[in-house]
Amino acid sequence: MYKVLLVDDEPKIIQGLQRLVDWEDYGMEVVGTVQSAAEAMAIMEGRTIHVLITDIKMPEVDGLQLIQWTKSFNRLIKCVILSGHADFPLVKEAAMLGIENYLLKPVNREELSDTLIGIHWKIESDLSEQTQLRSDAVILRNNIINRWLVNRIRRQELEQRADLLNIKFDSPSIIVSLIKVLYKDSDTDRDRDLIQYAAENICSELATWAVIVCDPYGYIVCIFPGESEDTTIQIRSVLKDCSEAIAAYLKRDVFITVGTREKELHDVHLSYKRALYLMDYSLVLPTNTIMDDSEQSPLKNIIPINIDYNRLQSCLINGNGSGVLSFIEETLSELSRAGGVSPSLVQNVTIEIAHHLLSYTHKIDPDHAFQIKNQGSLVAELQQQKNMDEIKLWLRSLAQTALQAAHLRDEDRNPIIKRMLDYVDRHYMENISLKTISNAFNVNAAYMGQQFIKAMNDTFSNYLNIKRIEKAKELITTTDLPLQEIAIRVGYHNQSYFNNMFKKHTGGYPTKYKITARSLHST
Predict the structure, then answer these.
(1) Most buried pick, 40, 120, 424, 447, via CB within 10 A?
(2) What's a GO biological-process term for it (predicted)?
């Protein structure tokens, strides 16, 4: 609600104005009513007022003087003059001060209404302009900092931008820390954006001596100047405060890493690179951990793990679905229980299991609709999993793919199912459903649905969504198309629904999948 202050030395006029219109209808509320300019000044010194409606003639300080005083420190305030008679010299003087209207008493309801509508539009326009200016400045600042973090800005340009970035170039060293907010599966894209924004603000308020920015991976980057060797202790303390504040106010856990101390400001990319590397430990360490590069490595007590991949292969060949799922559960549970397990070991074991599953799938049915095209897309999907539980779910999904391929191999497909699968291959990008296909085939929709579940061990709608998401992953990896265009090309005309479906079937949102896939391709 925009705040309105009414000023008139006649109480009846003020009372009449309050009752004349429903202020809430205009997005406004009357927060003050006074009978003198001095009282109005006292209120405006203590709070923000968006609209000032004042009598032009008052004892001691008149309305014009009040407006002039107000505009001296709040140029965006909208002012309206009230007068008992038309005084054109005063009207001219008021217009030069930038008033919105000059209303004669008694005030006409329609004229006041039209004036408030115009004022509301102008306030919205002013705020939008101010927001855009701030947004442009933030974008410029973030762009410079992110170029600095990856060593893509010349030292001379960086030094010229020091004031904008609020960086002290006389600092003896510099340290980069990363904060990863661990979202809930139920968080929508908008939820994540708001949580990220709030978490950044929390870090900015607590780490006042650091440069704060969000990087392309969605991590909150804190760049700390190192004044002394004691800085690491201070950094850990403020990061702990950030973690506790995010948990208290946003109800989200975090994982935090601290990179190397670098003596040269231009070597900040080395500290950032180390902090990124340590972020992989979020797979194997508890939430709200602060992983500091200066600490002793947690890998000193590595326990050897023997994994019987032949057992997995045997279960696949024999169509032992429960055996495959048990193998995945037991292997990852053993990794979780083992001491000193590195993220790279977890990733290598996971990729090895995934490779066995998909090799088997390709061998028995090269054209299977759910096959993943290459090793790179496997790694991209794996990197979107936040912890061991999510890795288990992802591997179980791949196992279901392999087992489903075996099921299709061993069972003579119903001719209707073959036609349905072929129809989906040709029309998945269109608005299709069981009903549209049943009309095209002149077959009962309920019967088709039952036959599909029996043959495919899956519902038609889920099969269609998986098909579309696989096509979307292929387009993300192999083209430069915007995500909105990709969503439309694979049959989703609602971007939010596409994002949620992508997250459901891959474990991560398309934006992060695109960043990960491109970074893997560039390396």
Answers:
(1) 40
(2) phosphorelay signal transduction system
What pLDDT, on a 0 to 100 scale, did the predictor assign at position 241?
Answer: 95
Tell me if 245 is assigned to some domain: yes
Structure tokens given for 179: 């904060």
243 and 185 fall within a common domain: yes
C-alpha to C-alpha distance for 79 and 226, rounded to whole angstroms: 50
More confident residue, 175 or 284: 175
Name beta bridge partners: 101: 80
pLDDT at 247 over 50: yes
Do 96 and 163 lie in a common domain?
no
Instruction: Could you list the beta-strand ranges (E) of 351-415.
Output: none
Tokens of 329: 């559960």
Q: Compute CA distances 472 → 218, 420, 422, whole Å.
A: 21, 21, 19
- The whole-angstrom distance between residue 153's C-alpha and the CA centroid of its chain comes to 26
How many CB atoms are located within 10 Å of the residue 80 CB?
23
Last residue of a domain, one of 272, 292, 312: 292
- When divided into structural domains, the chain yields a total of 3
Contact 224, 168 (CB under 8 A): no
* Tokens matching residue 132: 């855009």
Tokens of 49: 């007022």
Closest alpha carbon to 468 in 416, 441, 430, 435 = 430
Sequence-separated (6 or more) residues with CB below 8 Å from residue 186? none
Tell me the pLDDT tens digit for each residue of 71-102. Answer: 888 888 999 988 877 666 777 787 788 888 88
pLDDT band at 364 (very low <50, low <70, confident <90, very high): low
Decide if pLDDT at 20 tops 80.
yes
Structure tokens at 349: 């074991």
Structure tokens at 225: 């100047």
178 lies in a domain? yes
Name residue, tokens 């998909």.
358
Smallest Cα–Cα separation from 220: which of 244, 248, 246? 246
Mean predicted confidence (pLDDT) in 324-347:
78
pLDDT exceeds 70 at position 163:
no
Pair of tokens at residue 263: 């003596």
Q: What is the token pair recorded at 123?
A: 């306030």
Same domain, 122 and 177: no
Residue 210 lies in domain:
150-292
Q: State which of 292, 320, 345 marks the end of a domain.
A: 292
Strand 51-55 with 290-292, pairing:
unpaired
Mean of pLDDT over the chain: 81
Q: Any long-range contacts for 513-517 (C-beta under 8 Å, 24+ apart)?
A: 513/380, 513/381, 513/384, 513/473, 513/476, 514/476, 514/483, 515/216, 515/217, 516/380, 516/383, 516/384, 517/376, 517/377, 517/380, 517/476, 517/477
Q: DSSP character for 36?
A: S
Q: No. of H helices and E strands in the chain?
A: 22, 10
Q: Kind and range of the H or E element at 179?
A: strand 173-182
Single-letter code of the amino acid located at 16: G
Collapsed DSSP state (helix, strand, coil) of residue 118: helix
- Same-domain check for residues 154 and 287: yes
